[in-house]
Design a protein that fits this description.
It is built from five helices and 24 strands. It is of the alpha+beta class. The longest helix is centred in the first third of the chain and has 17 residues.
Length: about 325
């Protein structure tokens, strides 16, 4: 380990403390320095994709985030696109895009470590990339208000995920993090400070009330989302805990822009042909229809149950989506 080892030969490969995976309360794996610091992943991802306008669930109001769904998209000579579908509560105004070179690099690295530390993990094959934008607005009285991008406590929706699926929280920041007057924390080398406050976003986990009586489980814990870090959890953690994105308490002009890159596992195969999307199981394909009011009410009731209990939710056959982009032909180039 660099800076901690001595009396080693030239044939030894060094790792940093941040390269060493940490077991977090037996519910997740944290690698503080998963991705090369010398690579500007934020800029590469931003340039590789056209990030889209985003709302939450079926709300009409816009979020302080922009995002895009990513997976492997294959298009044949008949203009039929094959891709993986993963429906959650994030609604975008554009289609899924295929993985680009930078995505394949990130996903490959995460799958590599998943195979080392998890038993029989499903291949991570679907990503939601989101840019968390912070801004300052002025009201009628010219009083400034900070608008910070955040996500309230929730569990990820698992209707398209296999039981042995994983969720990978990857974090990248814009170069402004290193250009502003910030410094490494004296107590935590991987953290960045402005005066006495961290400029970084945190991911807060809280045990659901339905499992609070179980012994041996940490009731609440927080992960600092360091630059180029990875926090990897199984679906059992997603079932027992809610998680929340918590921005820095500093003013927005002191906070860097963050790109959250969440990779998940999709078991749902889909195709898009002749202007329509279909969900496929083997050779049988079912039209992805627009939801009725009852469909929306029923699915949101299951969402609520998944957010508030540790039940394994049986979604049954869901042949609709709350994401407008799922009805559009995915971008294969």
């Amino acid at each position: 380990v660099e800076k901690l080892s001595f009396n080693y030969g030239d044939d030894v490969s060094l790792v940093t403390v941040g390269d060493i995976p940490l077991n977090i309360h037996n519910v997740g794996l944290f690698v503080r320095n998963m991705f090369d610091y010398d690579v500007d992943y934020f800029d590469k991802l931003k340039n590789a994709h056209q990030f889209q306008v985003l709302t939450e669930s079926n709300k009409t109001s816009l979020s302080h985030r922009k995002g895009i769904y990513l997976t492997n998209v294959e298009k044949d000579d008949n203009n039929i696109c094959k891709f993986n579908l993963l429906r959650c509560s994030t609604n975008l105004d554009g289609p899924t895009e295929t993985f680009k070179k930078v995505d394949l690099e990130i996903v490959s690295k995460v799958n590599g470590i998943a195979n080392l530390y998890f038993e029989n993990p499903y291949t991570l094959n679907h990503a939601l990339a989101q840019i968390y934008e912070n801004s300052k607005t002025f009201g009628a009285n010219e009083k400034a208000k900070d608008n910070k991008a955040r996500i309230k406590s929730h569990s990820d929706k698992t209707k398209d995920m296999p039981s042995n699926g994983l969720i990978a929280f990857c974090t990248f920041y814009s170069a402004e993090l290193f250009e502003r007057a910030v410094k490494n924390s004296r107590d935590d080398f991987h953290d960045y400070m402005y005066k006495n406050g961290s400029v970084l976003t945190k991911l807060s986990f809280k045990l659901k009330k339905t499992v609070e009586e179980q012994t041996g489980l940490k009731k609440q814990f927080t992960i600092t989302l360091y630059p180029n870090s990875l926090f990897l959890i199984p679906l059992s953690t997603n079932r027992m805990y809610t998680h929340e994105i918590v921005p820095s308490g500093l003013p927005v002009d002191k906070i860097p822009t963050r790109l959250g890159y969440v990779i998940r596992c999709s078991k749902t195969k889909a195709i898009h042909k002749n202007g329509n999307a279909y969900i496929c199981e083997g050779k049988d394909c079912v039209l992805l229809k627009r939801p009725t009011e009852k469909d929306v009410a029923d699915i949101k009731a299951l969402y609520f149950e998944e957010n508030t209990t540790d039940n394994v939710i049986n979604y049954g056959a869901v042949n609709f989506s709350l994401n407008n982009g799922d009805y559009q032909p995915p971008n294969s180039s």
